[in-house]
Q: What sequence folds into this?
Protein backbone atom coordinates (compact mmCIF):
# COMPACT_ATOMS: atom_id res chain seq x y z
CA UNK A 1 0.00 0.00 0.00
CA UNK A 2 1.18 3.51 -0.79
CA UNK A 3 -0.26 6.46 1.12
CA UNK A 4 0.17 10.15 0.30
CA UNK A 5 -1.39 12.84 2.47
CA UNK A 6 -1.56 16.63 2.49
CA UNK A 7 -3.52 19.05 4.65
CA UNK A 8 -4.17 22.77 4.71
CA UNK A 9 -6.10 25.35 6.69
CA UNK A 10 -9.09 26.88 4.89
CA UNK A 11 -10.78 29.99 6.31
CA UNK A 12 -14.30 28.89 5.34
CA UNK A 13 -16.48 26.91 7.76
CA UNK A 14 -16.72 23.12 7.44
CA UNK A 15 -20.21 23.30 5.89
CA UNK A 16 -19.05 25.62 3.06
CA UNK A 17 -16.07 23.41 2.24
CA UNK A 18 -18.30 20.32 2.37
CA UNK A 19 -20.62 21.78 -0.27
CA UNK A 20 -17.68 21.86 -2.68
CA UNK A 21 -15.81 18.64 -1.91
CA UNK A 22 -18.81 16.28 -1.70
CA UNK A 23 -20.25 17.19 -5.12
CA UNK A 24 -18.87 15.04 -7.95
CA UNK A 25 -19.47 17.75 -10.56
CA UNK A 26 -17.21 20.10 -8.54
CA UNK A 27 -14.17 17.77 -8.68
CA UNK A 28 -12.63 19.38 -11.81
CA UNK A 29 -12.74 22.78 -10.08
CA UNK A 30 -10.46 21.71 -7.23
CA UNK A 31 -9.02 18.18 -7.60
CA UNK A 32 -5.82 18.17 -9.68
CA UNK A 33 -5.85 15.83 -12.65
CA UNK A 34 -9.65 15.62 -12.94
CA UNK A 35 -11.05 16.88 -16.24
CA UNK A 36 -14.70 15.95 -15.70
CA UNK A 37 -16.86 14.09 -13.20
CA UNK A 38 -20.50 13.12 -13.05
CA UNK A 39 -22.80 11.15 -10.79
CA UNK A 40 -23.92 7.89 -12.37
CA UNK A 41 -26.28 6.83 -9.61
CA UNK A 42 -27.13 7.29 -5.95
CA UNK A 43 -26.31 9.81 -3.27
CA UNK A 44 -23.97 9.72 -0.30
CA UNK A 45 -22.56 6.32 0.66
CA UNK A 46 -22.64 3.98 -2.35
CA UNK A 47 -22.92 6.77 -4.92
CA UNK A 48 -21.32 5.81 -8.23
CA UNK A 49 -19.49 8.46 -10.20
CA UNK A 50 -17.47 8.64 -13.40
CA UNK A 51 -14.17 10.50 -13.05
CA UNK A 52 -12.28 11.50 -16.21
CA UNK A 53 -8.60 12.27 -15.82
CA UNK A 54 -6.76 14.94 -17.76
CA UNK A 55 -4.79 12.34 -19.67
CA UNK A 56 -7.96 10.83 -21.15
CA UNK A 57 -8.55 7.87 -18.86
CA UNK A 58 -11.88 7.43 -17.09
CA UNK A 59 -12.58 5.52 -13.90
CA UNK A 60 -15.85 4.52 -12.36
CA UNK A 61 -15.70 5.24 -8.64
CA UNK A 62 -17.87 4.28 -5.69
CA UNK A 63 -18.24 6.38 -2.53
CA UNK A 64 -17.05 4.11 0.29
CA UNK A 65 -16.92 6.61 3.16
CA UNK A 66 -19.51 9.31 3.78
CA UNK A 67 -20.08 11.21 7.01
CA UNK A 68 -21.73 14.55 6.30
CA UNK A 69 -20.18 17.14 6.68
CA UNK A 70 -16.73 15.81 7.57
CA UNK A 71 -15.67 12.83 5.43
CA UNK A 72 -16.05 11.55 1.89
CA UNK A 73 -13.98 8.85 0.26
CA UNK A 74 -14.23 6.95 -2.99
CA UNK A 75 -12.56 3.94 -4.58
CA UNK A 76 -11.46 3.74 -8.18
CA UNK A 77 -10.55 0.40 -9.71
CA UNK A 78 -8.55 -0.32 -12.83
CA UNK A 79 -10.70 -1.43 -15.77
CA UNK A 80 -10.08 -2.91 -19.18
CA UNK A 81 -7.82 -5.52 -20.70
CA UNK A 82 -4.91 -6.45 -18.49
CA UNK A 83 -6.33 -4.70 -15.40
CA UNK A 84 -5.66 -6.60 -12.18
CA UNK A 85 -8.40 -6.82 -9.58
CA UNK A 86 -6.10 -5.90 -6.69
CA UNK A 87 -5.09 -2.58 -8.27
CA UNK A 88 -7.13 0.25 -6.80
CA UNK A 89 -6.94 3.82 -5.61
CA UNK A 90 -8.88 5.35 -2.74
CA UNK A 91 -9.21 9.10 -2.23
CA UNK A 92 -10.42 10.60 1.04
CA UNK A 93 -11.31 14.18 1.97
CA UNK A 94 -11.54 14.78 5.71
CA UNK A 95 -12.75 18.09 7.16
CA UNK A 96 -12.13 19.20 10.74
CA UNK A 97 -13.25 22.45 12.34
CA UNK A 98 -10.23 24.49 13.45
CA UNK A 99 -11.31 25.74 16.85
CA UNK A 100 -8.14 27.78 17.43
CA UNK A 101 -7.91 29.72 14.15
CA UNK A 102 -11.45 29.32 12.87
CA UNK A 103 -12.16 27.77 9.51
CA UNK A 104 -11.44 24.21 8.48
CA UNK A 105 -8.50 21.83 8.25
CA UNK A 106 -8.81 19.96 4.93
CA UNK A 107 -6.96 16.66 4.77
CA UNK A 108 -6.57 14.94 1.38
CA UNK A 109 -5.41 11.33 1.37
CA UNK A 110 -4.60 9.07 -1.58
CA UNK A 111 -4.09 5.37 -0.90
CA UNK A 112 -2.96 3.12 -3.75
CA UNK A 113 -2.70 -0.62 -3.95
CA UNK A 114 -0.55 -1.34 -7.00
CA UNK A 115 -0.99 -4.40 -9.19
CA UNK A 116 2.23 -6.17 -8.28
CA UNK A 117 5.77 -5.26 -7.21
CA UNK A 118 6.85 -3.60 -10.47
CA UNK A 119 3.83 -1.27 -10.47
CA UNK A 120 4.48 -0.59 -6.79
CA UNK A 121 8.07 0.45 -7.50
CA UNK A 122 6.89 2.75 -10.29
CA UNK A 123 4.25 4.31 -8.04
CA UNK A 124 6.84 4.96 -5.33
CA UNK A 125 8.94 6.83 -7.89
CA UNK A 126 5.95 9.11 -8.53
CA UNK A 127 5.17 9.91 -4.87
CA UNK A 128 6.45 13.48 -5.11
CA UNK A 129 4.18 14.13 -8.09
CA UNK A 130 1.14 12.78 -6.25
CA UNK A 131 2.01 15.01 -3.28
CA UNK A 132 2.35 18.02 -5.57
CA UNK A 133 -1.05 17.22 -7.11
CA UNK A 134 -2.62 17.16 -3.65
CA UNK A 135 -1.03 20.51 -2.79
CA UNK A 136 -2.35 21.93 -6.07
CA UNK A 137 -5.81 20.56 -5.19
CA UNK A 138 -5.78 22.31 -1.82
CA UNK A 139 -4.76 25.58 -3.47
CA UNK A 140 -7.46 25.19 -6.14
CA UNK A 141 -10.14 24.82 -3.49
CA UNK A 142 -9.92 28.62 -3.10
CA UNK A 143 -11.50 29.34 -6.46
CA UNK A 144 -14.09 26.54 -6.31
CA UNK A 145 -16.25 28.31 -3.69
CA UNK A 146 -16.00 30.89 -0.96
CA UNK A 147 -13.17 28.70 0.35
CA UNK A 148 -9.80 30.34 1.02
CA UNK A 149 -6.80 28.10 1.62
CA UNK A 150 -3.75 28.98 3.63
CA UNK A 151 -0.41 27.38 2.76
CA UNK A 152 -0.31 23.68 3.63
CA UNK A 153 -0.21 23.23 7.39
CA UNK A 154 1.49 19.86 7.33
CA UNK A 155 2.20 17.09 4.91
CA UNK A 156 3.48 13.59 4.92
CA UNK A 157 4.32 10.87 2.44
CA UNK A 158 4.41 7.26 3.48
CA UNK A 159 4.95 4.08 1.55
CA UNK A 160 3.44 1.46 3.84
CA UNK A 161 3.06 -2.27 3.94
CA UNK A 162 -0.49 -3.65 4.09
CA UNK A 163 -0.34 -3.45 7.89
CA UNK A 164 0.18 0.33 7.86
CA UNK A 165 -2.78 2.23 9.31
CA UNK A 166 -3.82 5.90 9.41
A:
Amino acid sequence: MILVERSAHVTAPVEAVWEVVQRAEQLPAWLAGVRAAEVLSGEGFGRRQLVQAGRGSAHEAEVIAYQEPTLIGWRERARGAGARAEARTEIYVQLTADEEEGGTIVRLIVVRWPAGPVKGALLRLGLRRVGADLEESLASARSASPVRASPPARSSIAACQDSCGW
Summary: The CA atoms of residues 98 and 104 lie 5 Å apart. The mean pLDDT is 77. The two ends are 12 Å apart (CA to CA). The first helix runs from residue 14 to 21.
